[in-house]
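Team,

Forwarding the record for the chain on the shared tracking sheet. I've put the sequence and predicted structure together so nobody has to dig through attachments.
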Amino acid sequence: MRRNGFRDLLGKIEQQKRRKEQTAQAQIAKLKAEVRARDSEIYDLQNATVIMDTERIWFLERQVEELKDELSRNSVKEGVTQYYSWAKSPSDASKDDLMDTARDEDHFGHSTMLQLQASTPARARSSFMTPPATSPRLPASLCSRAASPTPSSRDTPLHYPDSDKQLLEEEIASLHFEVHRLTATLDSYHALGARIGDALSNGPLEKNRAFSTLEAVENQVHLLLQTMSERAAAASHLTSAISELGFPGEDASEMVSSLAAGFRAVRIELEYLTPGEVSLPPTSRGAQVLDLLLMRLRELAKKSKEDDESINEYHEIEQSLRKQLDSRVSVMDELNEKIAGVYRMLDEKDNRVRELEVGNGRLKSAIDGYVQDITELEKLVACMEKEHRESTNTHTSRQKSSENLIAAKDTIIAELEAKIEETVVQTAELLKEMSATEVSLTRQSAAMSRQHRTALALRDARVSELRADIDRVKNSLQVAQETIHALRIENSGMKSQMEEEREKVRHAMDSMKEELQRVLRLSQSFLGDTNSDPNSEYGGNEPDRSGGCLKNLRRRGSRGLRRRYDSGPELLNEDDVDI
């Protein structure tokens, strides 16, 4: 049972590490896709804010209103009858569901499940990678839905909305949902970390804290800590008991047999854990088996530590990408607010211009009426003067009355002229006001354009700094890879050079041995010649002595001048040969 439990524990640890790596990679890919989508949206907004055409703005507003109306109508239709896409299998649909919170207690503990729920979405557990939120091929919504026909209208054809507009709306909704979900997950993770830290430090808990849905998780963490402490105490007690009492058994033979059986079982388990040939024989001692077991366990611990470090690096990359995404979202919100303010100011200015145009039209119509009245009065005055001239010749009695009438008409004309002058002054003032308003409008538009340029420049500088940081990290990684590659090449070169040096030394030693053997043979031949002819030096004739010396010299000279093939570091000279 213990062996099976140990094997299951190792399998669970490996599966857990693999799943952590897969979820981290999936989250990194998703965050990179969201960052690229945010960059494209910021670029589009930057290009759109430069153009300030009222007709274009009105056209876009009408399109937005139409799309909203159509979306509301479609949402009402879909709210009545909906069905999921039957092209997906039930297992895939259950995997893609965002509300999948089932936990596998056979493979993960409480703390591990808590980390997975706080750091990674539930969708990352699917067997295949989901597309990013800005994918043009498949909308990244909660699930692919379409309006299903009711049972009463099963044979009627379906009318789908425009695919491009629906795709854009679904992408925007999915982006907002992902951002809200990430922020909620981070807040819950920070709150849970604070509560667990307070519990571990045995600090005073808050008396009046709100009810939280994570109390069950906290209780499980407390129980886990308590069980760990109890197990540690039990393990220490067990080690002391084994050291004092020894191995189980009534006598020494049973203890030795039980110990040997245990070591054989450990050796078999090692073969199961590490496939391949084990260097220890079946009759090896217990200490050797324990050493081998400890070595394998150390290797597994080292490997698990490296995996944990890589997972931590992935989490750091994920945090940095989330920070970049938050900064870009804040910049987009600020730009949207500024654009809305600009639109409101443009609407107010357009309304003011319309009011001024209406007033100007009214003023022009009043001036035209005054001019017509003046022309009519001039005609009337001319007629009256003609009648006066005729009446002066014929009717002298009516002269005074006509003079009074002319005086009254003169007063009326003076009043009309004063009114005309006042209207002219008013028109001049209105023209001045119109010119002043036009100048103020141009100045305000220039100031707004300058503000937008400065804001865009600051945002571009921030984006360039972030990209420069990313490039520096990539360059450092590339330099590290190049140095590792260079060190590997240098190591292989050093190995080949050492082999060559060993070959050279071996050849030199062989050549020196051959030279020494040749010198020994020469010395032995020389000593043999001297011993074979003892009378050549002490007795005999002079011609024989000189002839023997010449023969020995000739033999020695021929041996000394004989060509030698040597592959050593240097050749022996003639003095060494004579010796």
